């Protein structure tokens, strides 16, 4: 057999041998949902307010027009209205960077949502001290019900 033929045979044998593969890693576990007590009404929110611990609410997502001192227009901001009629602001009105984008508003507006976040008696801010409105900030999770 010629040397060329031997090399070709070795090359074909090498190329047709099974390629060793690494064993597949186990898939990473899914992130567990944030576990927190339910805050179903104003009294439950008050009890958890400013405790720096998560609380979960369920209600209808919408945008609400806010005004400040002297009826100054502060714009629309997302809220969740609980079954007892309590409105809870999502994130701080004073932090425009946390405003939801149009796609998020379109997805949740008018829908029943479950939201987990830290409860505050007023939006976290560096602005007027006389603006009180129950707020979840930061929002840790939001999902359609």
Could you describe the 3D structure shown?
The protein has 145 residues and is of the alpha+beta class. The protein has one domain (32-144): OB fold (Dihydrolipoamide Acetyltransferase, E2P) (Beta Barrel). The protein contains three helices and five strands, in the order ααβββαββ. The chain has helices spanning 3-16, 42-48, 102-108; strands spanning 54-67, 73-81, 87-90, 112-120, 135-144. A five-stranded mixed beta barrel has the order 1-2-3-5-4. The longest helix has 14 residues, at 3-16. It is globular and about 35 Å long.
Task: Give the amount of beta strand, in percent.
Answer: 25-35%
Please trace the helix and strand order, writing H or E for each element. HHEEEHEE
CATH class: Mainly Beta
Sheet with most strands: strand arrangement? 1-2-3-5-4
Flag low-confidence runs. 19-32
- The level of helicity is 10-25%
What oligomeric state best describes the polypeptide chains here? Answer: single chain
Number of domains: 1
**Kindly, what is the distance between the CA atoms of the first and last residues, rounded to a whole number of angstroms?**
75 Å
Please state the CA-atom Rg, rounded to the nearest Å. Answer: 28 Å
What would a concise description of this structure say?
The chain is built from three helices and five strands; from the N terminus they run ααβββαββ.
């Amino acid at each position: 057999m010629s040397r060329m033929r031997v090399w070709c045979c070795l090359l074909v044998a090498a190329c047709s041998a099974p390629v060793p593969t690494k064993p597949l890693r186990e898939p990473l576990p899914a992130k567990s949902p944030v576990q927190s007590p339910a805050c179903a009404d104003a009294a439950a929110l008050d009890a958890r307010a400013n405790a720096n611990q998560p609380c979960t609410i369920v209600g209808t997502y919408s945008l609400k027009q806010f005004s400040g001192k002297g009826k100054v227009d502060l714009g629309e901001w997302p809220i969740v209205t609980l079954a007892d009629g309590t409105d809870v602001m999502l994130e701080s009105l004073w932090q425009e960077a946390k405003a939801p984008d149009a796609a998020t508003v379109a997805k949740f507006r008018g829908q029943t949502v479950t939201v987990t976040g830290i409860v505050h008696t007023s939006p976290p801010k560096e602005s007027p001290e006389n603006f009180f409105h129950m707020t979840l900030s930061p929002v840790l999770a939001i999902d359609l019900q």
